[in-house]
Amino acid sequence: MQHFDVAIIGGGPAGLTAAMALSRSLRRVVVLDSVRPPRNVFAKEVHGIVGLDGVSPGEYRRRAWDDLKKYGMAELHEVTGTDVTPGPEDGFTVTAEDSRPMWARRVLLTAGMVDVHPEIEGFGECWGKTVIHCPLCLGWENRDRTWGVVTGDPEFAATAAAGFSAWSDDVIVLTDGATPAGEWGGAAVVEGKIRRLHHIGGDLRAVELADGTVIDRQTLLWQLDQRPVPLIAHLAEHRGLAMDEDGYVEVDGSFRTSVPGVYAAGDLVTEAQAAVESAAGGSGAAFQIIADTGRPSGPSPVGYPSAAQP
Hints:
The protein is of the alpha/beta class. 23% of the residues lie in helices and 26% in strands.
């Protein structure tokens, strides 16, 4: 059985940033990067990370692993994690599909979330282009267009009424059939279930409601429902991993979960989801693991110079 200081389950910005911090702190790391497509597979570019702004998600990962290989401390296993069980000793046995079990002193969960796409004609073609989940991620690319914010949350609608004016001076709220009570903060609100998105090659042109009403819109900000990946759901059901009422992993201010020795960061702990936010969380979690565990369990890789060498 292979032994590691830390097993990172998830190979996105949170997991890769954590792997870098841990590698530079001489921790032996294994990254389990699921074979399923990442959430941002529909996006052409990653934004907000200085020095990497505009690279594709695939290029981001390639560059990250090129950087990690220089340290010789991290291994990539392209497998899907299936379980994390305590022991033996002060650590965990990590199992994965089509892979031998491995042991890790600590575990960091960065597996992200799964978006639940609505069954609406045209949604898939527009998602990640002109139907977006985050204004900080793709607002620039959709600036100076007519926007619709799909939400049934009056508080979020009030934010949209004023907060998104940097990208568009024409913002309305589409409730998609929800009729919640509360103040909408001055937002123009259109009720009605959405049944179709009119577009040309993913370039949104209009939203069609169930009653046949067609509303001209060029961009939709749509925060989808999400669910945890199967491993996280399994750990919540069988290993005592605490989740909040919205399905996100509960962590304290130091990225510790309810399971001692297991940490979590990135999209699976918060609705505030962006590559740069995930990277920051991964870095913070790595520093906490380093502080909690003290010295690494093994020596530097053979042939890698120590800090004392010129």
